[in-house]
Fold these 3 entries.
Entry 1:
Amino acid sequence: IGQRHLRNIKRVYGDKYEILAYRTRRLQQTFSDTMQIREGVDLEREFHLKVFTDLDEALVEKPEIAYVTNITSKHMETAIKCAKAGCNLFIEKPLSNSLYGIEELKKISTEKNLTIFMGFQNRYHICVKEARRILSENSIGVIQAVISEFSERLTTMHTYEDYRQTYMARADMGGGPILNLQIHDLDLLHFLFGEPTEVVSVISKNSQLEVDVEDGASSIYTFVNANGDAFPVYTHADFLQFPPAHAIKIVGEKGRIEIDMNQASLKLIVEGDIVEEKVYMDFQRNDMFIEELKDFISCVEEKKAPVINLEQGIVSLKMAIGAKQSSQKKETIRIKEI
């Protein structure tokens, strides 16, 4: 993901910004937008990177912006160091794998008036934008229920590396489908419907995957609709399905919205009739990241409030932590008590 952001910065802004890179492994694999290795291309030469193997040395250069795109369990440690050095931050999802250090980061960012922008690019998906429009027009009436699923086969997600060595497969690095897949939908649910009140979950490890994280997770979150009534949101994620599945169904009293995020398709049904049925053929996944990048840079340059801020990153993380706690304790967890 760090390379994707790097490519897009160069694409949009050319040589306007000098780019420093804090790298520990110094792997020279260079990727395309479709996650294919570009044979014979040296990453550091291709993008003219000034590389550091020590973060403190890199921060002596006083960068204005830091992209935090390392493993999830290192997000807070890295973000706090960069914030102390006065960097505005772009933090990839999820914010972290625990709440440790978050209050310190909030305090530093407030004192230094820093921009912190969370990397949830799916908010820029054309189908999510259309769903928000439809919901704002009250086309399907008061929300009754939502069903979301985000699943991919771990063994083929990154074909260029052993899945067992990826951060996604390791608990100590913040792995598992909740923090790596479902977190996107948790953010979208918060974005579309506000903050949930509670969650009950079943999290499992039943497959033959050689991982020490869950391979599947199913949760029911309780949200409150416009009438003040509770409604359920069922969300599922796993590391097993191929081809991947990423879909959201929003059910209202008068109809429903069906979204396939992977196919970039949306169907609106009202009173039994298909009112809209669209497939966005021109949709390119990288377009979401480009739009996200432009938003972030404009927030930094113009000191605008981020559209996806630290507080929103905290909510989605608490939703994820709540799901894990619910399964461990076998009880309903209230989100505000986390």
Entry 2:
Amino acid sequence: RCVMCPNKDLPNADKGVMTFELFKKIIDEIHGFVNDIYVHHRGEPLTNKELFKMIMYARNKDVAVRFHTNAGLLSLEKAELLIEAEPNLVSISFDGFRKDIYESIRVGGNFETTVANIKNLLRRKKEMQARLPYIVIERIRFKDATKNSDTKETRALEKEFRDLGVDEIITKEEYEWAVE
């Protein structure tokens, strides 16, 4: 339901999560031929109950793992499981470093919950002295300037994420999906 998401109009019948058995089959067939995989495509990987098992399986086959999340479902328990699974890279879409902007973009999202989830992930990574995952927070620079924010408040939150150990914060231009 996010404003920039091409999936919001996709029929539910066309959505789903991959089973561990299919994932395992794919990894068994590709390991040795690929360097890395993304375990998401136009969806939220944290909805898959077997995500952490999948990450560990791929990593045990020497396949690097990356995934992208909006962090809305990244509870403290999931953050710990994620760190233990050791994906190589986790990128987090966090559009709108202010509550009003964030919640107008991430329809149904809760700003405070997402901020707490990101902070918990960063704190636990530091507490567990984990090298991985490399954590990137991604912002979108929207064509609609009212959805962008560069205020004292947003810079303070960005500094807090940096102080907690985020590896990188990047801003990307809004992507326009092709319409069929």
Entry 3:
Amino acid sequence: MSSNTDRLFYSDNHIKIFNGDCKSMYELRDESVQMVCTSPPYWGLRKYAGKQELIWGGDPNCGHQWQHDAYGAMGSGTITIRKNALQDKHSLKRKDTHSQFCSLCNAWQGAYGLEPTPEMYIEHTIQILREIRRVLRKDGVVFWNIGDSYSAQRWSGKEQGQPMNKYRDGYRDINPVRITNLPPKNLCLIPFRVAIAAQEDGWWVRSVIIWNKPNPMPESVTDRPTESHEYILMLTKSARYY
């Protein structure tokens, strides 16, 4: 593990900015943070520039043998590796996702937000929220901005090998299979899945705040209203808070 100073990005007499993996905020003491306000990557919407692949789950002492061309079968929130499996609506090719599984311990390597299933995204979100709960004071508050996604057979974006397509503040250069149990065009309800999972993990869901956007990005879809809002989950670790 690196020292605290390795991730110190900026410091003066008033503030310190750290740049590192949010799954392990070891620079911060237990119950030392008053408020967390964050907008993490939404599920399956874009790939940000730069290398952001992390290792999730599995055995931290494993040597990891990454499988790029294996198939993963979606289970109840987990993915298991199957070699020479037939691809169906509950399977996906690893080489199409810019992520990979370890054939030894089933760890997943990839960027947060690009998980192949919503169940895995929720699992990783709760993992991050647990580390936040560790550093959050008993009277602390979390504001968690999160958007939703639609069920589809493929994410929009460029095919592999094509020029990278700049999209607002991120990049979309992938076109992997996106696996859900929902028929295409269904709203995945990711914010509410996160809220329920957080509630079940011990958080108080105090409010679902609507971020209204009077001038939203136009959409070409003709069979539903244009999305003109996002959600901000207000979470606390106790019933009484500041």
